[in-house]
Amino acid sequence: MLNHVSVINTLSLMHSCGMYNYSGGFATRVGLPGKAGISGVVLLEIPNVMGMCLWSPAIDTMGISVRGLQFSEQLVQKLDFRH
User: Fold this and answer.
1) Which of 20, 47, 74, 76 has its CA at 20 to 30 Å from residue 67's CA atom?
2) Nearest to 44 by CA among 78, 70, 62, 63
3) Domain limits for position 52
4) DSSP-derived 3-state class of residue 36
């Protein structure tokens, strides 16, 4: 079982470098910890609420799911979960 410090450290890493070269842009536009995979998956964490996995195989030049990124941006526009 993970302890509290491990969770905090993992979320910090996801927030700072989980979206490859777009990590800074993702942090400013979405503001939530996320992790992208080149298979088209995006793992998005809403701290103290939930985690979700998004999958759409179309990826952009940085290796991030195009629709996963669009969904993440629209989610925080509708429901402001930012810290």
Assistant:
1) 47
2) 70
3) 4-78
4) strand
